[in-house]
Amino acid sequence: MKASKYSYKATMQGLASLSVTNVGWEKTAPNHKWGPGIRDHYLIHYIIAGKGNYRFSDHKTQQLSAGDAFLIYPNTEISYQADADEPWEYVWVGFTGSDAMTVLSATDFCPDVPFLKNIPYGDRVQHEIKHLYHACGNQFSHAVEMAGRLYTLLSVFMQGATKVHSTDSASGNVQKAVEYINCNYAYPITVENIASYVGISRSQLFRSFRDQDMLSPKEYLSDYRIRQACHLLEDTGLSITAIANSVGFDNSLYFSKVFHHAKGMSPTQYRKRHQIHGFDT
């Protein structure tokens, strides 16, 4: 069987809530392997044909075949390899965003068992991922359309979930914290404010985020603000000071320092590299 592949990788900043980083299809060569390594985003594969092995946390290995799906969690060492005799063919979609963890927690995926066997809604999954691929593009409108289709895809996994999802304390705390950050990031909120809203101590909030394999609350807040700043730099002509104020920084110099640390360049450099509309700064 001849190996072949088509794929798309996003080149612009997506939505902070949920955005597609890559999507595609591949008919792999025998013994084709990725890893060991880590990804910086979530990645779902649905296997159309063939089989292979997925190695995940603590070096556990699971053989998977047509009709199965597997999820790669961010910053988790994994590898996956096609079978020598029946190499797999699969579709995949990679994504990130503040909503990702909350949505995935309502599916049958979990870090200890990041795969689903013989899912009865596989045809719908394949269909939605192909729709995602056909919606790809490098305009902001494409990013919005892809995000919408990604929500639809994830809802298929949610609707097909077989386990009862009771919101445990850690995931519930994180969900409330994320909701508060999403609504209040433009104000000078602190981790103490977030913990007070959730109704727990700062240390409990920190442990809840860690239990869900997330950034710390402080890191998440900063990352969310920088993501929003990137949208404003790309899509508006606001001054750097105005953008800093708009995303919760009352000092533009400190904002520039945090932005440079996160992106490896100043806000002005980022704007010159990414801005489409050509606003005067």
TrEMBL record:
- Superkingdom: Bacteria
Domain HTH araC/xylS-type: start-end pairs: 175-273
The UniProt record lists the keyword Transcription: yes
Does the keyword field hold Transcription?
A: yes
Entry keywords, A to Z: DNA-binding, Transcription, Transcription regulation
Entry GO MF terms: DNA-binding transcription factor activity; sequence-specific DNA binding
Q: Which SUPFAM superfamilies match?
A: Homeodomain-like, Regulatory protein AraC
Which Pfam families does the entry link to?
AraC_binding (PF02311), HTH_18 (PF12833)
Alphabetical list of CDD domains matching this protein: cupin_MmsR-like_N
- What name does this protein carry? AraC family transcriptional regulator
* Organism the protein comes from: Agathobacter ruminis
